[in-house]
Specification:
CATH superfamily of the largest domain: P-loop containing nucleotide triphosphate hydrolases
Low-confidence stretches: 308-314, 615-620
CATH topology of the largest domain: Rossmann fold
Number of domains: 4
Radius of gyration: 30 Å
Strand content: 15-25%
CATH architecture of the largest domain: 3-Layer(aba) Sandwich
Distance between the termini: 47 Å
Bound molecules: adenosine-5'-triphosphate, magnesium ion
Mean pLDDT: 87
Helix content: 25-40%
Structural class: alpha/beta
């Protein structure tokens, strides 16, 4: 009986006994987890399956140990009956003395946001919120016989933990039970971020790709992702609580997982519609699910979509300032026209106008008849090997997410054969790099990882040589502050080997993080072929010009301009947001004088205007 009515709860219990693997996994400071695994767990689950509501089923091993008796079922399982003697045990429990620092040790087992909430004494009320849930299962670890299993378990767990961290997710549950080991990962709880569903799918793709080591162990993964509303919060009795997510969204993710073939990832409609812009998906398939009357569409993401973002944007606003920068760029374009490879590094802090300058560059080279390609690195995919190159190559080869595998494969085949007919056998290597599945042929099937890489690198040399023969080629690397190490190595490799090709590489980046130390950065950016173009904030005069263009005015009130310049320090993104805030708060009015000149003026006091205190709050 509850305040909301009466409900009946049924419970059945399976009991088993035996040796289990007990292991604490994960990094020492946070993200720890204790795991139980082994046959007795599977047997307990099996026992439970033999019962129905109200039953306690025990395994033969339990009978052996404590001599309980009851009704005999299949395979030696016993159902305890009312007449069953209660089993007798020696009292074994001792008082446990916790070490003084137990709180610190325990802390590592609690998700930091949950820990902080407990620390602050905040009520652990549950909340209803939207999350994306990954339900994953893997098979292939033998918890009972394999002497290496603890090492493997640690490796698998730490890897999943690391990936989850990278995509702002959280490991919510781990269960090493029967029919494979399962984990529930949440994106959006306990902490919500922008693009939680996008992060979940990205994480799912990496999980399904696995690691080479795991192939040797023969691990098989299945993943289901669903997005929707769940109950999230701490549940349990006062002396044992757990942060958990519950609801039909979680169930659906488990059911999706169950529909997967080994090595497959399926997502639900809601995850699909929120992410179809960012990933290539296979054609949907409908399945019937337990407890849901209508069949549901399921979608299988294949790879990160590789449209060329922002590349085609023709800015309607004219370029403000940047004369010296454009002069350097024009010089480089001339050099490339004379069959030289050159590199431009457009660098500066967030929002200063780097991408705007690269757009301007794109328009210039377009007019010069260059071929252009480009891609962007992603903040959450800093370790995805070659991600940005994959976008660039897919774009250049004309691979489309809307076309089928056969069509895309045909394009890759053409590219390989045209640029290097002698090595036409390389098609499967290139296809697989670009996320188009293609079985190995007689030659490539014998290649090990090293040989594959050498062949891919060599193909790229031939490809760009061939491609730049007809027209110069320009490649844009947007948001290169998030580029992965392998992509940088490839850039350096091409620079070493294609010095006499009309090829222009444009790296557009914020400062690299201090931890990102790849030796190729120096090699690339300090080379004679490279020109570094630092982009700074606008001075007051350019701020005025830029503000006028944002306001679509010809004049601006001096104190309004002061306010904008002081708050923004001349940062273009900042100015844009600030002006749009001022407009929406009716702090600016446009006045047209008799000569038809539009002037922007202050309306009321500006002191209470909301000013974003840092650019991060604007951009992230
Ligand atoms: N010189 C300029 N002339 C006209 N508009 C500009 C200029 N510089 C920047 N802008 C505009 O200001 C906004 C922010 O600039 P942009 O996107 O190029 O910044 P960014 O340096 O690439 O930022 P991020 O580091 O976030 O990628 C854009 O709308 C852009 O069109
Ligand atoms: Mg940019």
């Amino acid at each position: 009986r509850t305040r909301s009515g009466s409900f009946s709860l049924g419970m059945k219990v399976g009991v088993s006994a035996g040796d289990v693997l007990f292991q604490v996994v994960g990094p020492a400071e946070k993200g720890r987890e204790y795991l139980l695994a082994g046959l007795p767990l599977d047997r307990a689950a099996e026992a439970e399956h033999h019962g129905s509501s109200g039953d306690v089923i025990i395994t033969p091993r339990v009978v052996e140990l404590c001599g309980a008796c009851g009704d005999e079922l299949d395979n030696g399982f016993i159902r305890l009956t009312a007449k069953s003697e209660p089993p007798r045990f020696k009292k074994v429990r001792k008082e446990i003395k916790y070490r003084e620092s137990w709180a610190n040790i325990a802390r590592a087992f609690i998700d930091p946001p949950v820990y902080n909430r407990i620390l602050l004494g905040l009520d652990s009320v549950g909340e209803i919120r939207r999350v994306s849930v990954i339900f994953l299962s893997f098979t292939g670890l033998d918890y009972d016989e394999d002497p290496e299993v603890t090492r493997k378990l640690e490796a698998v767990y730490s890897w999943v933990y690391g990936l989850t961290q990278r995509y702002n997710g959280s490991i919510n549950k781990v269960d090493m039970g029967d029919k494979g080991s399962k984990m529930i990962l949440t994106f959006g709880a306990p902490t919500a971020y922008e693009n939680d569903e996008r992060h979940a799918v990205h994480c799912g793709l990496e999980l399904i790709r696995g690691r080479e080591e795991f192939n040797q162990w023969n691990l098989k993964w299945k993943l289901g992702i669903s997005t929707g509303v769940v109950f999230a919060g701490e549940v349990g009795a006062p002396n044992r609580q757990e942060y958990t997510v519950m609801g039909s969204t979680v169930n659906l993710s488990a059911r999706l997982m169950a529909k997967c073939k080994p090595g497959q990832l399926l997502v639900d409609q809601s995850t699909f519609s929120r992410t179809s812009e960012f990933f290539d998906y296979n054609k949907p398939k409908k399945f019937k699910f337990k407890g849901i009357s209508q069949p549901l569409s399921t979608y299988e993401p294949k790879s990160v979509k590789t449209a060329i973002p922002r590349m085609d944007v023709r800015s309607s606003k004219p370029l403000i300032g940047r004369l010296t920068e454009m002069k350097k760029i024009t010089g480089v374009i001339e050099d490339v026209g004379k069959r030289k490879m050159r590199v431009i590094v457009i660098m500066g802090s967030a929002g200063v106008g780097k991408s705007r300058l690269s757009q301007e560059t794109l328009q210039l080279i377009d007019a010069e008849g260059f071929n252009a390609g480009g891609g962007e690195a992603l903040s959450y995919a800093k370790k995805s090997p070659y991600l940005i190159w994959i976008s660039i190559l897919r774009g250049l080869m004309g691979l489309l997410s809307s076309s089928g595998t056969a069509e895309n494969l045909e394009r890759i085949k053409d590219a390989v054969e045209q640029s290097d007919p002698e090595h036409a056998y390389r098609t499967p290597l290139i296809a697989n790099l670009l996320g188009i599945s293609c079985p190995d042929n007689e030659i490539t099937q014998h290649f090990d990882a090293k040989l594959r890489q050498e062949n891919i690198y060599d193909f790229l040399l031939q490809y760009f040589r061939f491609k730049s023969e007809a027209k110069p080629v320009a490649l844009f690397f947007e948001d290169a502050q998030w580029i992965d190490k392998n992509s940088l190595e490839l850039i350096a490799y091409l620079m070493r080997n294609l010095a006499d090709c009309p090829l222009m590489l444009v790296l557009v980046r914020r400062p690299y993080s201090e931890q990102f130390t790849v030796e190729q950065i120096t090699e690339i950016e300090q080379s004679d072929a490279a020109v570094r173009i630092p982009i700074g904030e606008f001075d007051r005069e350019l701020t005025e010009k830029f503000a006028l263009s944002c306001l679509e005015a010809q004049q601006i009130d001096g104190r309004l301009l002061d306010f904008i310049f002081d708050a923004s320090h001349g940062n273009a993104s900042f100015i844009e947001v600030l002006i749009s805030n001022l407009k929406s708060q009716a702090k600016i009015k446009l006045v047209t004088n008799r000569e038809g000149v539009v002037k922007a003026e202050r309306e009321g006091e500006l002191s209470d205007v909301e000013v974003p205190d840092s650019l991060n709050s604007l951009i992230m």
